[in-house]
Amino acid sequence: MSVNLTRREALATLAGLGFSSVLVACGNSQSPDNQNNRQQQIEDVVVRVATLRGPSSIGLVNMMNDTSGIPGDGGDLSSVGNPEEGSGITYAYQISSAPDEVTPMVAQGTCDICFVPSNAASILYDRTEGNVELIDINTLGVLSVVTGDSSIQQWEDLAGHTVVTSGQGSTPEYVIEYLLDQAGIADRVEVTYESEHQQVATELASDPAVIAILPQPFTTVVETQNSGVHSVINLNDVWDRYAGDSGSKFVLGSTIARKDFVEQHPQAVADFLQKHQESVQKCNDDPDGTADLVVQAGIIAKKPIAQAAIPKCNVVCITGDEMEDAQRGFLQVMSDANPDSVGGALPGDDFYYKG
User: Fold this and answer.
1) How far apart are the first and last CA of the chain?
2) At CA 187, angle to CA 181 and CA 189, rounded to 5?
3) Furthest-apart CA pair in the chain: how many Å?
4) Is residue 250 pLDDT above 90, yes or no?
5) What is the arithmetic mean of pLDDT over 159-185?
6) Which of 62, 117, 274, 296 could crosslink 171 through cysteines, CB 3.0-4.6 Å?
C-alpha cells in the first residue's frame, strides 16, 4: 500500500548514526512450520505511521522503501482506508515538518504509531490519560551551536549573546533552558525561536556572525554553504558534563503508539519494531544508499549533503530495558528543571512498552 507524503522545499533536521540495542520483540526461535502458521494468522491491518522530517524519517526511509515505496507529495493519514482482504500488515506514512502537526494526530486517533520529541511523548501520555506507550527511542541528541563568531568556543561563552534556534515548546527548548541554567548563564543569554529549523539555517547562511543552535543535517548544510561557519559545541557533550552522572541520555526523539492499538494489534507492533530496527541498521551500514532514499523522499534536497550528514547524527532504535532507563533518566532531568516540560508529572510504568 502506498500513501503520499507531505513535502516542503526545505532541507530536514537531524539524521543518523548509532544503531543500538537488539529488539526483544524481534527474537524468533520458531520452527518454519510455526512461522508459516503465524503468518497465516496475521490479521489485515494498515499501520498508520506519522513521523517528523529529519532524523526519525531518515531512520525510517529504508523501511518505507521496503514496505510501500517512497510516496510523493500530499500524503494525509486521515484519508487512509481499510486494508484489503488478505493484505496482512501494511504501512502508510506521513512526514510532517513540525511537532505541532504530528502530536494532534495521536489524540485524534488518525495515526497508530508516531515519532515525536521525547518530552512530547510524556505530555501526550498525560493528555490522553495514559493512552500512549513508548515503544522505542529513535534519535539521541544531535544539536550543536553553529556560528562564525570565533569568540564562541564553549557553552559558557554564550553569556551576553543572543542565540537563535527552533523547537519552542518541545525537547530542544527545555534542553537548552536546562543546560543554560546548569551553567549559571540563563539570565545572560537571550534565546529567540523560529518556527522551523530551515529559517534558522537561512539566517545563519546570510549572516555568519549569528549564533545558532541547529540539528543535523542543517549543521552540515550551513557548513557546506559557508566555509566560515562551524559547529563549535556539541550539546551531547554539554549534557554529559551537567547530567551524565544521572545515568540519563540526551533523548531527542521517541516513538509512541496508541495503547489501544498496541492491545488490539500486538503482531503489528512487533512487526513494526523489527522493521524499524532493520531500517536503522541499513541507514547506518549504508549511508550512501540511504542518502538516495532520503533525497527521493524529499527530506534532504541533495545527496552529497545527505551523505555527509547521516554519519554525524544519532539515529537509533533503542528498545526494552535500555529504552526505559534512558527515557526515565532524561524525563526526570527535564521534570526537575521544569515539570511542565513533561506534562506536569512523569509517566507511570505503563508508559513503557514491554513487548
Assistant:
1) 26
2) 90
3) 68
4) yes
5) 93
6) 117
Q: What is the mean pLDDT of residues 238-263?
A: 90
CA 135 – CA 260 distance, rounded (Å) = 13
Contact 331, 120 (CB under 8 A): no
Please name the residue that has the C-alpha cell 500513501.
3
- Half-sphere exposure (CA, 13 Å, Cβ side) for 57? 33
Enter the pTM of the model. 0.80
> Read out DSSP for 236-265?
HHHHHHHHGGGT---EEEEEEEEHHHHHH-
Least confidently predicted of 28-42, 268-282, 308-322: 28-42
Can you read off the three cell numbers belonging to residue 235? Answer: 550539546
Beta bridge partners of 203: none
Residue type, 304: P
- The confidence score (pLDDT) of residue 23 equals 28
Please tell me the distance from the alpha carbon of residue 14 to that of residue 179, in angstroms, as a whole number. 20
99's grid cell: 511537532
pLDDT band at 119 (very low <50, low <70, confident <90, very high): very high
Q: Which residue has the cell 506514512?
A: 93
CA distance 147 to 291: 26
The 10s digit of each residue's pLDDT in 63-98 is 999 997 655 444 678 778 888 888 899 999 999 887
Does residue 276 contact residue 284 with C-beta atoms inside 8 Å?
Answer: no
User: How far is 212 from 203, CA to CA, in rounded Å?
Assistant: 9
| Distance of alpha carbon 345 from alpha carbon 206, whole angstroms | 41
